[in-house]
Amino acid sequence: MSGKILIVDELATNRIVLKVKLSSAYYDVLQAKTGADALRIIAAECPDLILASAKLTDFEGPTFIKAVRKLETTAKTPVVLILPSVKAEDRIAALSAGADDVLCNPLDETFLLARLRSLLRQGNIDKDLRIHAGTAHALGFAEVQGHFQRNGRVALVSRKQNKAMALFSALSASGQHAFVALNAESAVGLAEGTDVPDVFILGIDSEDVDDGLRLLAELKAARRTRNCPIIAILEPSSRSLAATVLDMGANDVMCGVEDLKELLLRLSNQMHHKHMADQMRDQLQLGLNAAVIDPLTGVHNRRYALPFLKRLIDTLDHETETFAVMVADLDHFKNINDTYGHAAGDQVLKGVASQLRASLREDDMLARIGGEEFLIVTPNSTRAQARQTASRLCRIIQRTPISVPGRMDPIGITISIGVTMAVPGAGCLAPTVESLLDQADRALYGSKAHGRNTVTVCALSAA
């Protein structure tokens, strides 16, 4: 995994040793002697990860982390602090200041590289989500969301129920988050409709390492839990497994829980990442929806409809069913705009779209493809069924005038529909999106020519 890593350490020998280790793992390495030097390099180079000594000549570790977090370019960049000792208070101070992890000298090279891979992997995922969600927001597809830490739902999973319940009781007493204890089967088989935990704390016992690793893999692969951070808790005797656990997808790992506050800080860090990722995914989904939904009527737009039609065409070689393509156009719609105003015309369009959508099957597709023109695609329809559906839609629209704010009487409206059929090739040229739309349009012209408020089915099947 490539990436740009900044090493911050006042001792040249430490920097050189780390650079050799990281360069051999194909990382681009930057170096800084002081915190001030590091901040200048950060502003110029935007590293993917910062690996810093806790003892700098001009900064204490926690103070340096806070300075990094204040910079817009590195507010979300993973920061690992290297401590000279294993004192619990130093670890707590670093994590409280915003460190993603704290490591102690002497560094275990295997674990160090695994931890860096894990943090860079998560950092790249977060970066991609920010880019896509940011694009959606820039296009006006997403609301600005507040950034705040909130409690979440945490599941403790372990085969040793006595240890799990002891940890469950201690964590629950903290007053942070909502904790639930699950067995392995319940964790993997979360039923649809069941609340999925935000974070898993997974206990891996030395006697059941294979089962624990298998459970980790299953949680990271399952559709409903694959985006949930996992904090793996190993027994001190299984410390050598830490690198393996990280490479298998765990977001964090602890060898025993010597200090509950440290676990809670690590948990809050993962909870924050999860909430932010969920928020960005929601913004992205809003953007995707907005890109294929007509904002006035709430039905699909041309951008969605044409690929949908193409996908149906692509199945014709493998299926015997035919499908219908209809183009519906509101009759004399210009007169409505001229007589009642464009606001009333918009209400009519919305009302007609709502009636059409309510009158179609769940698998049918409805899209607004022009000013007052709608495309309707009905899969698995015969010619007779398509004509029957189109005629029914005409009757429904004619019998249901549209209420418009500011007018006592609703506005009556009719539609004309042109229909064509798509059938398997059977030795003929396969239909195309263009040919289907052209034939439906020609049929629509026939309906307009025959007095409107009627249905015309194309004499030729698109094949």
Automatic annotation (TrEMBL):
GO terms for molecular function: diguanylate cyclase activity. CDD domains: GGDEF. It catalyses: 2 GTP = 3',3'-c-di-GMP + 2 diphosphate. PROSITE patterns: GGDEF (PS50887), RESPONSE_REGULATORY (PS50110). Its EC number is 2.7.7.65. Pfam families: GGDEF (PF00990), Response_reg (PF00072). GO terms for cellular component: plasma membrane. This is diguanylate cyclase. The lineage of its organism: Bacteria, Pseudomonadati, Pseudomonadota, Alphaproteobacteria, Rhodobacterales. The gene is pleD.
